[in-house]
Amino acid sequence: MGSPQLLMLSGIQGPPRILRHQGVARQSLGRPRDVRQPDERPLHPVSSARRDFTHTGCRNHAITPQASSDISTQFSTRGGFIIEKTIGPLSTGHLELKNRNPDDNPKVTFNYFKEPKDLRRCVAGMKTIEKVVESKAFSKFRYPFISMEALLNMTSSFPMNLLPKHQNDSKSLEQFCRDTVMTIWHYHGGCQVGRVVDRDYRVIGVDALRVVDGSTFIYSPGTNPQATVMMLGRYMGVKIQSERLSLHKTENGG
To answer: What PANTHER family has UniProt attached to this entry (predicted)?
Structure first.
């Protein structure tokens, strides 16, 4: 989230409406290039999660018990989660400045499940997970005296997000998905290629400024993005160096 925030605070990029609202003067830097200029559309963050368990679901499901008032304390530290994610969700949100203080995080609205298809994918994924958890092969990884209904309600009771909770989420997988939805750790997508930066990661409309980090991702890599960001940084570093050497040779008649 830091890169789009800095671009907006500096007035280099961002929806003009949001910049005007915060009193940020729009800057014009460099020579115009033949690229699509930024418009009023908001920047879209892409949600990220730990594990790509299926290609249809998008939420979390407890597979063994955690601390709970109705479970013996001997199990309080023995547990885990199956964590899914939606690949390329249709629902989009937006990112905007809360104020002009660079130390304050920007405001991010995710609009989870704005598109009904995303919710249907979550429900389909949950049904797949239920089959796996209740299978014979998985039986050694769960406590036999805890029902699937109890697992669902236990999972939804955990403080995964700041959304209001509902009783008996196990009665509705749609409600379970809504109550347990979250984005985990690696926020990205605020400076997407083709919208904020071009294919060479240059900020659109600026000659000598590039953004080369996770904010340029359109889709989540599916796991911790550190290696992907390092690879991207090295690739662009080598490419920039090659371009400069080629330009130097041309200018010197080489």
So the answer is: OS04G0573100 PROTEIN (PTHR45968:SF3), OSJNBA0019K04.7 PROTEIN (PTHR45968)
